[in-house]
Amino acid sequence: MKTRITELLQIEYPIIQGGMAWVAEHNLAAAVSQAGGLGIIGAANAPAEWVRGEIRKARELTDKPIGVNVMLLSPYADEVAQVLVEEKIPVITTGAGNPGKYMEMWKSNGSKVIPVVASVALARMMEKGGADAVIAEGTESGGHIGASTTMTLVPQVVDAVNVPVIAAGGIGDGRGMAAALMLGAEAVQMGTRFVVAKESICHQNYKDRIIKAKDIDSAVTGRTHGHPVRQLRNQMTKEYLKKEQEGVPFEELELLTVGALKNAVVDGDVKNGTVMAGQIAGMVKKEQTCKEMIEEIMAETKGLLQKAGTLYE
């Protein structure tokens, strides 16, 4: 499948793996890229030298393009930005802010810069600032979320900008990908589905929690404080939401989540840790290799698009 995104990023399939903190490290990124998509290393709040190490480890596993996601609120963002220049990273995605201060440095070094956006206004701002594409992420996604659904956000962003749009949020199979393409997107970004990949270093408890999730297992904390985060329901979300309803200050609530994502991903504490996952968790039923996932999704997408072409005869 060829789109402006596959051409821009020099990848076989228009599938990008989300840059999930603690999950998106070199093993997963390399496996996704090797399978024909674009693997992403999530820099999150990690120091710059850790990011450099992950890039180099990924390159030992594949000669395909690898991207890095920069969390712009990270205290190490400046140093990470410089490392990406030194390592000549071909694709940089960004979240939690405006990458404007790094744009000229990255683009003059040959990197393609693709910010995550949750609104039309931000998409326009990113295009004006030199972004090569944007990731329009709907509220169905795991982790920090915006307000608009993927179904409504993607076509509005497509109409508003001239750069290619990548759809994210609520996409985990060929049906979601086919729908995203019909909305005008030219690629999809997936996170939750890749969490349960065989190459993912996520603790088995975390993977099992996603695989066993039901459609109603998604919870959003922090709405009242303007910092909404989607995750799977557990003892921690129950306690957080109760305190939030009682009007407990944001700073005090956040103490419940300190180190909670690492506790879940690395140590397997899915009761008191933060099990970040999107609303598609209820659709994820098995562990597969990244290659198996991508080939299955592409085959399903192709079948659906061909079938759609026969509806009007």
Characterization of this structure:
- The chain has 313 residues and is an alpha/beta fold.
- 42% of the residues lie in helices and 15% in strands.
- It has helices at residues 4-9, 26-34, 48-61, 77-86, 100-108, 120-128, 150-160, 174-182, 192-195, 204-211, 235-245, 250-254, 260-265, 290-308; strands spanning 15-17, 39-42, 66-71, 91-95, 112-117, 134-137, 143-144, 165-168, 187-190, 218-221, 229-232.
- An 8-stranded parallel sheet has the order 1-9-8-6-5-4-3-2. Strands 7-11-10 form a 3-stranded antiparallel sheet, covered by helices on one side.
- β3 (66-71), α4 (77-86) and β4 form a beta-alpha-beta unit.
- The longest helix is centred in the last third of the chain and has 19 residues, at 290-308.
Concise description?
With 313 residues, this protein is an alpha/beta fold. Helices cover 42% and strands 15% of the residues.
List the helices and strands and how they pair.
Elements lengths: L3 H6 L5 E3 L8 H9 L4 E4 L5 H14 L4 E6 L5 H10 L4 E5 L4 H9 L3 E6 L2 H9 L5 E4 L5 E2 L5 H11 L4 E4 L5 H9 L4 E4 L1 H4 L8 H8 L6 E4 L7 E4 L2 H11 L4 H5 L5 H6 L24 H19 L5
Parallel strand pairs: 1-9, 2-3, 3-4, 4-5, 5-6, 6-8, 8-9
Antiparallel strand pairs: 7-11, 10-11
Helix pairs in contact: 2-3, 3-4, 8-14
